[in-house]
Amino acid sequence: MSKMRKSKLFKSVQTVALFATVAIPYAVFSNPVYAASNDNNVEWNGLFHDQGPVYDSAPEPTSTQSITLKFRTYKGDITSATIKYYDSGDSAFHTVPMSWLQNDATGIYDIWQGTLPASASAKYYRFQITDGTKTAWYNAAGISSTEPTSGDFYVLPGFKTPDWMKNGVMYQVFPDRFYNGDTTNDVQTGSYSYKGTPTEKKAWGASVYGDTGYDNNLVFFGGDLAGVSQKMSYIKQTLGANIVYLNPIFKAPSVHKYDTQDYMTVDPAFGSNTTLQNLSSTIHSTTNGPKGYLVLDGVFNHTGDAHQWFDKYNNYTSTTGAYESTSSPYSSYYNFSAWPNTYASFMGFDTLPKLNFGASGSTVRNVMYNNSTSVAKTYLSSPYSIDGWRLDAAQYADANGNNGSDATNHNIWTEFRNAVKSTNSNAAIFGEFWGNANPWTADGKQWDGATNFDGFTQPVSEWITGKDYSNNAASITASGFDSWLKGTRANYPTNVQQAMSNHLTNHDITRFGTRAGGDIWKTYLALFFQMTYVGTPTIYYGDEYGMQGGADPDNRRTFDWAQGSTANSAVALTQKLIGIRNQYPALRTGSFMTLQTDDINKIFSYGRFDNTNRIAVVLNNDSVTHSVTVPVNQMSVTNGSTLTDKITGTTYTVSNGSVTLNVQGHYGAILVQ
Question: At 81, which CATH number?
Answer without folding.
Answer: 2.60.40.10
